[in-house]
């Protein structure tokens, strides 16, 4: 490369280090505040999005609950219909067997 234009000794390095330490907070304050502002804005957007997602999920869960309740009501109605059907079928079968047995008894005597 080449020879350095000037050489810096330990005293000059100490002065430069002290100067940088003294002013570093001032220089970095603006950068840090801009970065913090950006991060805060991002976190606020994320929180808002999470809130929106939570609301969407709650509405979907409520819709699912309504669907399950309507399905339960339909199953209960079908169960009642089946109970009535089976009860009437049992009565008809009982009457049929009784009538058949009675007819067999009557025909046995003649």
TrEMBL record:
Keywords associated with the record: Membrane, Transmembrane, Transmembrane helix
Domain of life: Bacteria
KW Membrane (keyword) present: yes
Transmembrane annotation, as ranges: 91-109
Protein name (record): DUF1640 domain-containing protein
Organism: Marispirochaeta aestuarii
